[in-house]
Write a structure and sequence with these properties.
The chain is mainly alpha-helical. It has 6 helices and no strands.
């Protein structure tokens, strides 16, 4: 990506994060549907990418804090497909879990928060501060109650 494309992607990502934050507060089910779509799409994209062009993930080292850059260039570089496949599976579980109810939604929110905070040190590579804002939005959702799965809810409430 060019520098201009990175800036545009970062701005758009952060606007999305702010919208998710607002929706988590005002329209919890719309927010959880959008988060679900976000995590499921990320899982599919990561799975496809790592199985077609795994070396693209090494680019994140350019934007990451030094500690993360060392991990990316070291152990991660030797097992990219395995690590990213596990990440994609986790994203998929979070995405589908957000559509469930009660403890599954809470666990999915916690998993999403942990994931988003874990990618924050990737800096511009993770559209920082997108992940912090999105983690805050998931924390708001975590504190809410979801007694029915999304298909049974009146999701516009």
């Amino acid at each position: 990506m060019t520098q201009d494309e990175i800036i545009i992607a970062t701005v758009i990502s952060n606007i999305v994060a702010l919208v998710l934050l607002l929706l988590s507060w005002k329209r919890k089910n719309i927010a959880r549907i959008l988060f679900s779509i976000l995590f499921i799409c990320a899982a599919v994209l990561n799975w496809k990418t790592v199985h077609t062009d795994p070396l693209v993930y090494l680019e994140y080292s350019k934007y990451a804090i030094p500690f993360y850059a060392g991990i990316i260039k070291g152990e991660f570089a030797r097992h990219i497909t395995g690590y990213v496949s596990c990440i994609a599976l986790g994203q998929l579980l979070i995405g589908f879990g957000l559509l469930a109810r009660e403890i599954i939604v809470k666990l999915s929110c916690m998993g999403g928060i942990i994931f988003l905070l874990a990618i924050a040190p990737l800096g511009t590579g993770s559209a920082f501060p997108f992940s912090i804002t999105s983690a805050a939005a998931l924390f708001i959702l975590y504190r809410k109650h979801f007694n029915k799965n999304i298909l049974q809810n009146k999701w516009w409430v």
